[in-house]
Design brief:
- It is a single chain.
- By secondary structure, this protein is mainly β.
- The chain is about 5% helix and about 45% strand.
- It is built from two helices and 54 strands.
- It is globular.
Length: about 550
């Protein structure tokens, strides 16, 4: 039944049909139109105009508040095509999807700011996380020329998605690290805020900055950091990945990773193009204090400085990448530069890469690979099966590495490196652990591995060699007593120990010359722990690493 009521001379009416139940074509269940309309909150139902002139901030915020109040179900806030002027920050809460019709072309949904504001953010209450804040198909643009904010700032996010969006800043905008998407943690502990998934977005004169957000995935994006310091920055954002992205470097690099080691590990880059086609660009990628990172199948093209710059990092794999026409500033920049300032580089694998500089007129040439360290000599470095295509465009030899005799440089072609330059022994690391370390232990075998339920306590050696180092690390600082771990070879004490005491409260490393504690094929390498009666805390978990040369 359709009821229409005319009020005075106004052209307004109410429709009683909203309470009637209807069955949609092809479906089976009757629902009222009011219920169906409530599934999606259209900002125009809350007064938004979308003409680029009217201030639509309050209307869009009212729709977002309605979705917030609908928890735990949450809601979808829909912005039809149009340009929506935003004059203050919009707040998106958990379990909310902000969706437009698209970020490009005639059906684009554009949120427009003309002043220095963050256009969209989570509430950011310290220690409170915001789960499933999703942003899909929106064009964010700020035309201000002096800006200190990002378009979108996700504070304490969990499992949030940004997909098919366009972030654009004025090309003449001043402000080095602004415009684009920012993710940060406010309060809480490391790992509390995690997983921002950014997919199929374009960042134009804009960037992505992630600080203390773990497990981020950046997939199939164009990120042009022109006139920014970087295109992408990670700070203490462990276990994050970039896949199939095209990047333009900022003044420092296309990607910058910094932080502290125990919160700055396991980054993965697959099929990423690091480039700097414009002037005032930096390196392709710059890492500082990074662990367990893999760079595979990527290209580093026309960067003004190095293709890849790594400082004070450990356990890095650089495999199957292409380095083309870097050192664009003609200032003796290398394609790969690895340095140790406060930490000697360890466990670096540079394998199967190609290096080429075509048709350049550079006079200040750099190396294809240069590895330097101040202080201790790098350990367990393997540089193998790399190809330098044009030897005249690199300093000869093209590979320069300050290595120990135990490291390897072999089967690299071109640039003064034709075959085996150095091939010494090989270093192997073996891991052991114990959780909830008790007091009053006497020569108790540690289980091998880094965690789990394994009951195996030793490694069987396939080759002869010698033990050269042992390290112990605790996740909680020692507060009383002494803990000692010792290497055992086939049941016999070696005397090679690492100790946690009043001096070394969380980590200790002991090294020795090769051939002091030797072993043969089939020897068993184990570690035993001893703690005195006053050892604390008994809730500490320790990991031990034994390094051998074979």
């Amino acid at each position: 039944m359709l009821n229409i009521r005319i009020f005075d001379m106004r052209d307004t009416f109410s429709v009683g049909l909203l309470s009637e139940e209807v069955v949609a074509t092809g479906s089976t269940t009757a629902r009222s139109l009011a219920a169906r309309f409530g599934d999606v909150l259209n900002v125009k139902d809350y007064g938004a105009v979308g003409d680029g002139a009217a201030d639509d901030t309050a209307a869009i915020q009212e729709a977002l508040h309605k979705a917030r109040d609908n928890r735990p179900r949450g809601g979808i806030v829909f912005c039809p095509k149009g340009t929506y002027l935003i004059t203050s920050s919009l707040i998106i809460n958990a379990d909310t999807i902000l969706m437009g019709e698209g970020s490009f072309g005639g059906r684009a949904t554009k949120l427009l700011a003309r002043t220095d504001i963050t256009m969209l953010t989570t509430p950011g209450v310290s220690g409170v996380t915001y789960e499933a804040c999703d942003i899909i198909g929106i064009h964010f643009e700020n035309t201000a020329t002096t800006v200190t904010n990002y378009h979108v700032h996700l504070i304490n996010p969990i499992l949030c998605t940004v997909e098919r969006c366009y972030f654009r800043s004025d090309p003449d905008m001043t402000g080095s690290n602004v415009g684009g998407l920012r993710g940060t943690r406010n309060g809480g502990s490391f790992g509390d805020a995690h997983t921002i998934y950014v997919s199929r977005c374009l960042f134009n004169h804009a960037s992505i900055a992630v600080n203390s957000i773990t497990d981020c995935q950046i997939v199939q994006n164009e990120i042009w950091g022109t006139n920014r310091v970087f295109a992408v920055e990670f700070v203490n954002s462990a276990s994050s990945s970039m896949i199939a992205c095209d990047l333009i470097a900022g003044t420092t690099a296309a990607v910058v990773i910094t932080g502290t080691k125990n919160q700055n590990y396991e980054y993965r880059f697959f099929n990423v193009d690091f480039a700097s086609p414009n002037t005032n660009g930096g390196a392709g990628c710059s890492f500082t204090d990074v662990e367990r990172t893999k760079i595979i199948g990527c290209t580093f093209t026309a960067n003004d400085e190095q293709g890849l710059r790594i400082t004070d990092s450990d356990n890095i794999g650089i495999i199957g990448n292409s380095f083309l026409d870097n050192n664009d500033d003609d200032n003796s920049f290398d394609d790969i530069l690895i340095t140790g300032v406060s930490l000697s580089p360890r466990r670096i694998q540079i394998i199967g890469n190609t290096f080429e500089r075509t048709g350049t007129t550079d006079t200040n040439l750099g190396n294809a690979i240069r590895l330097l360290a101040s202080g201790a000599t790098p350990q367990n470095i393997n540089i193998a099966f790399n190809t330098i295509e044009d030897t005249t465009e690199y300093t000869v030899p093209a590979i320069v590495a300050n290595l120990a005799d135990t490291d390897t440089v072999f089967e690299n072609d071109g640039g003064g490196i034709t075959n085996t330059t150095r091939q010494g022994g090989r270093l192997l690391d073996m891991d052991y652990f114990q959780d909830n370390v008790a007091a009053s232990q006497v020569a108790v075998p540690l289980r091998r591995g880094s965690s789990g339920v394994s009951q195996i306590t030793s490694y069987t050696m396939s080759y002869p060699g010698s033990v050269i180092a042992i390290s112990v690390r605790s996740n909680a600082a020692r507060t009383a007593g002494t803990l000692t771990v010792e290497v055992i070879i086939s049941g016999s004490d070696t005397g090679l120990t690492a100790v946690l005491d009043g001096t070394n409260t969380t980590v200790d490393v002991t090294t020795q010359d090769a051939d002091l504690d030797t072993f043969s094929t089939t020897s068993q390498i184990a570690v035993r722990i001893t703690t005195d009666a006053s050892w604390l805390p008994v809730t500490a978990d320790i990991s031990v690493e034994v390094t051998v040369e074979v």
